[in-house]
């Protein structure tokens, strides 16, 4: 009893109370008496549901401070040594002999008890930790055992255990990985099939030790989920989908169509687990209810510059130097006479001058007798056609990342949507303009027909392929400056398409492919058709020309 009283006196002398737990400094049980039950509030933790402080631990929270922490430890040791005698004394003593000390605490003891009240934040996170431990414990439903039964690598097992231990304790890096992971596609009953999570938060999570060595790194992956029991699934969700629109029930196949990628969730986990490891873990948890595939995992580790990218950068650097040199030459020779400027080497150099090309593009021909002035109406046709095509592509592009696709059912009931859906008709405008200008140009040529035909074909080929491959080169450099939740999948598909079908781009035969719907550059079909129609038009016009 003296040891316990000494511990209380030491705790009440502190200036800034904190929590300190001493075990066996208080009797585990008190004599059952009305007085003792009424006075038990002095040994209870305020703010809880009437239970004694640290009742599950068999401990009592006593207020102390860092300044008196050593004294408190000494007192605790003394109380441990005398706990047996104290407990026996209390058990043999009558309840009334102990009741006054508890039912009538001193002012100092009351103040000490008030400082022992935990904050709401502490109680909140303590409850979360307790819940997480129950969910992830081996005995609580076998959740941990189920995860470890998956066919995963040894590194992934260690990473999984490390994450679960950190998540039980709500460590910051584990909270970030959990927070960055997508939970559920919001608006699923309106045909939302993707929830991307927090990409940047995930890959920015890196934990290092005191020496700077990496301990944990977050990686972002795509998890794709497909329902296996389609009939029962549709039977359950179709009544809920019908609230959107009377014809929304016909959209049911959108949720189970095998041609579509299914549900997509952003998954953030430790980098020690590969995509196959995560697939096996997810499939083990889902069982036969769904098919799950995890792929396209990325981290913040820089992959460096590939050989192809280095070659493209070198080419662009040389091209930039040539442009700078040609522009400088253009400025220095601005006062040259026309005879010197008409030299072929000089014209070739001026083809790379930024100044000369800017004047050519921005210049306005005011000669009313020129062809450019006569056909100036075509500029308006081009502008309206391009605007119409861009508008149609903006609404006609389909992506798995779009949300609430059922809104399209309501949207296409409005009459103005006919303008958008008919945007493909504007493409015919450019076919007409190309044919019209080709016929007009060839009809004014009086040189050898064979030479004119060959020159026209080569010129048209260069004007199409050079901008095309320049655009492809820029796309090869895109991974160096841009990344996102869908970037790895996009770049991999682009690289695979170029490696497999580079020849149909080089020979402008893109429209002969049968898998146009899976390409990431479907709009290139126009270039191929335009060039093929140009070849036919040149031959026909030159043959029929009189």
From TrEMBL:
InterPro entries: Acyl_transf_3_dom, Nose-resist-to-fluoxetine_N, O2_lipid_transport_reg
Residue span, Nose resistant-to-fluoxetine protein N-terminal domain: 153-300
Composition skew (Polar residues), residue ranges: 90-116
UniProt biased composition (Low complexity): 71-89
GO molecular function list: acyltransferase activity, transferring groups other than amino-acyl groups
Organism, scientific name: Amblyomma americanum (Lone star tick)
Transmembrane segments: 312-332, 380-398, 418-440, 461-482, 524-544
Keywords: Membrane, Transmembrane, Transmembrane helix
Pfam families named in the record: Acyl_transf_3 (PF01757), NRF (PF20146)
Sequence segments annotated as region (Disordered): 23-116
PANTHER family according to UniProt: O-ACYLTRANSFERASE, O-ACYLTRANSFERASE LIKE PROTEIN
Top-level taxon of the source organism: Eukaryota
Protein name: Nose resistant-to-fluoxetine protein N-terminal domain-containing protein
